[in-house]
């Protein structure tokens, strides 16, 4: 007899149907995930392409690119004949000068101010070579922690030499901690302690001890709006910006509307300084436009020399130009009715903005040490910055993790979203500062004495001289304390101090 054909049971039909249903659902989900992943990658590739571009507006404002021939010619000229700009300094004023920056000290001395008329107040003694030779060696240094009102008062109360006691006093307030990447409220306290409270303490002491002029170094980064890299159309919002003083005529923005804690703290300090101005105590601020350089300890040229943004166009300002702006500022504030009092002035080098590729070309062409740029896709930097910030803030959000998670150290620690906003196209506008002083006009009469090309080449020349022995052998790179590394050291010191106090 033929075998009866096996008929599927109702149960097996249900199981088979369920299998088909689950398999189809799984395949659909997998296809959906694949489509989403593909679209995400396409979107990120598009954003990366946008971030690698230069807006036409920024490109038009930038200068021509530096060539190897041009760089070598300037290098040879500076090697044979250093830049001499003493004749371009404002006339000497018979005043005492306390709490000053290195380039201001050198310029005061160059125009004839005796060392006894100058006093440096700082947390550490000058590390620069040019501050340890000549007349600069004779300038008194008083170690001062400006986060302590008592320490600041004690420094200001220190007697001056008898030849100086009768002179009026100008205070050039230049101390600052720069941590451009931090933007969380968890991390604001340290910057507030130095940049805001430190300014309060120095401002109060200057007024109490009879100063009549207070010229403070602010920052053009105050006007930078946060860049939004993830775009839906066109270019990222705020991908290129003009840095000027227009924001000062408006109410102070909330902290969240600054790209980070650093500009937020400088904006608060700037308002404190400018609000304190009156006919008997004239105050105001100089805003250096974006990257300040001028010594191997800086982060702009010195940083790359000692250890993604080749297409980025930015304005730079040499420390000597910032210093000369302060001297012009002091001169206009001698007038008790000066309209320039109580406001900030942006200053830049006296040339169009450059591209970072110019800086990299200068270092790779002229440095005695090999220099090679490794270009990383911007989108990877952006994505990594959010990951680093998330990890870095975990111990603040979940305190018990502080004893478990290893701390991020080195340059990676500073790769957070806040840094993206200062790695975009930033053009400084110092029109008000550059115009000649006139009655009733908000002008400074500032004129930069050195160009970005000259001084970046000169800094590399000085670097080479420090690292080349007489026999031509190149020494290993020196390690300098940059403003960022110093800020990290100060953060740790202040944190230990708080623990001890508690």
From TrEMBL:
Belongs to the NAD(P)-dependent epimerase/dehydratase family. Dihydroflavonol-4-reductase subfamily. The chain crosses the membrane at residues 31-51. Pfam families: 3Beta_HSD. PANTHER family: HYDROXYSTEROID DEHYDROGENASE_ISOMERASE FAMILY PROTEIN, PUTATIVE (AFU_ORTHOLOGUE AFUA_1G06450)-RELATED, NAD DEPENDENT EPIMERASE/DEHYDRATASE. GO terms for cellular component: endoplasmic reticulum. GO terms for molecular function: 3-beta-hydroxysteroid dehydrogenase [NAD(P)+]/C4-decarboxylase activity. Residues 96-363 form the 3-beta hydroxysteroid dehydrogenase/isomerase domain. Coiled coil: none annotated. It comes from the Eukaryota. This is NAD(P)-binding protein. One of its GO terms (biological process) is ergosterol biosynthetic process. The keyword Mitochondrion does not apply. Keywords: Membrane, Oxidoreductase, Transmembrane, Transmembrane helix.
